[in-house]
Design a protein that fits this description.
Distance between the termini of chain A: 63 Å
Largest interface: A-B, 18 and 17 residues
Order of helices and strands of chain A: HHHHHH
Number of domains of chain B: 2
Largest sheet of chain B: none
Shape of chain A: flat
Radius of gyration of chain B: 27 Å
Strand content of chain A: under 5%
Number of helices of chain A: 6
Largest sheet of chain A: none
Structural class of chain A: mainly alpha
Number of strands of chain B: 0
Helix content of chain A: over 70%
Helix content of chain B: 55-70%
Oligomer: heterodimer
Number of domains of chain A: 2
Number of helices of chain B: 12
Chain lengths: ~120, ~230
């Protein structure tokens, strides 16, 4: 292979890798801005959707407090607990339930503790 | 002397003076419209929170039909919406247990709580209600029913009757009959002294439970009904 072609291929590979990394970072940043650029109920609805995509309790505990509307926050937390209660460690579940408004906390704890609901 | 014309005139005057009912939605329909309107801001921006909002709003409704109408719009929160309303209503003691159970609608968890809270005195009837109403939680409901029945330390003929009528739940019933055999106190002399004859699963479960409780009689306390 000629040296010019090798140099071009090497340059192309490095450029492609950088472009991919940049695109990934850009995508992540756009994802963050998706909710931050919104206000009021639209912002809260956006974060609610992100909470449902969260795979760990840690993510939920970080995201949920950024929901300003208590009803949307309660909906997001209870919906996530419903979806993950069978695999949710007790301590993490309790931490999530503690973020709910007082009237919803007993319903949340019951979801974690009632044997027929956690099977 | 007759006064018929005067009376008729008076009735006519009263009928004309009676106020005309104001046009507008019936109270239940108005309550449904108000609940839907209060949650409307969430409908497009946070659709799942909209359903959750309706679930919270049903507490304000007095009528089961209105509740069902609002809950039908609650999406993933529909079953929870029924359960929430029944929970609120059960604290008010205005509805019969049958009405509360009907109001549970699609919520099997709600139905389980209601069937458990108002057990029939005949455990076979109670098991029938579990099968008819508690959906995915039928095994839990039957277990609760049989445990409650076992805690009354039934006599031999009653144990035979129930064993014969519950082949489908042979393991559960056999286990609790084993508890009765192992744990019955001296003041319950009519309880069976050994595992009665029955199907293989039933007899095996009974004998296994007898062995288990004989090893650790402190577990017999679990048979006692829990305080209210």
């Amino acid at each position: 292979m000629r040296p010019e072609v090798e140099r071009f291929e090497s340059f192309f590979r490095r450029t492609s890798a950088c472009a991919l990394i940049a695109l990934g970072a850009c995508g992540a940043a756009t994802g963050d801005k998706d909710c931050e650029a919104l206000v009021a109920i639209e912002h809260d609805g956006c974060v609610h959707a992100r909470v449902q995509r969260a795979s760990t309790a840690t993510e939920v505990l970080e995201l949920a407090p950024t929901i300003h509307d208590a009803l949307v926050r309660d909906a997001a937390l209870l919906q996530w607990v419903n979806a993950h209660r069978k695999s949710l460690p007790q301590r993490e579940g309790q931490a999530i339930c503690a973020l709910l408004s007082p009237r919803e906390q007993s319903a949340c704890n019951r979801r974690l503790n009632a044997p027929h609901l956690s099977r | 002397m007759t006064r018929v014309p005067e009376v008729l005139l008076l009735l006519l005057a009263l009928a004309c003076a009676a106020p005309v009912a104001p046009a507008g939605p019936a109270p239940a329909a108005a309550a449904v419209a108000a609940a839907l309107a209060r949650c409307a801001p969430y409908r497009t921006a946070a659709p799942d929170a909209y359903g959750f909002c309706l679930r919270s709003e049903v507490a304000t409704l007095a009528d089961a039909g209105a509740m069902a109408e609002v809950c039908a719009a609650a999406g993933i929160w529909q079953a929870d919406c029924h359960a929430e309303w029944v929970l609120q209503q059960s604290r008010l003691h205005l509805l019969t247990p049958a009405a509360l159970l009907d109001a549970c609608g699609p919520s099997a968890d709600c139905a389980l709580q209601q069937v458990d809270a108002h057990p029939d005195v005949d455990v076979l009837v109670q098991i029938g209600r579990c099968e008819a109403r508690t959906g995915a939680f039928v095994d839990d409901c039957v277990a609760h029913a049989v445990q409650r029945w076992a805690a009354s330390y039934p006599a031999g003929p009653e144990v035979e009757r129930v064993a014969a009528g519950t082949e489908r739940y042979a393991v559960q019933v056999g286990t609790f009959v084993g508890m009765i055999v192992a744990c019955a106190p001296p003041d319950a002399p009519d309880t069976p002294a050994r595992c009665p004859d029955g199907g293989a699963l039933y007899g095996e479960a009974c004998r296994r439970a007898v062995g288990s409780y004989a090893q650790d009689r402190s577990r017999c306390g679990g048979l006692l009904p829990s305080p209210n």
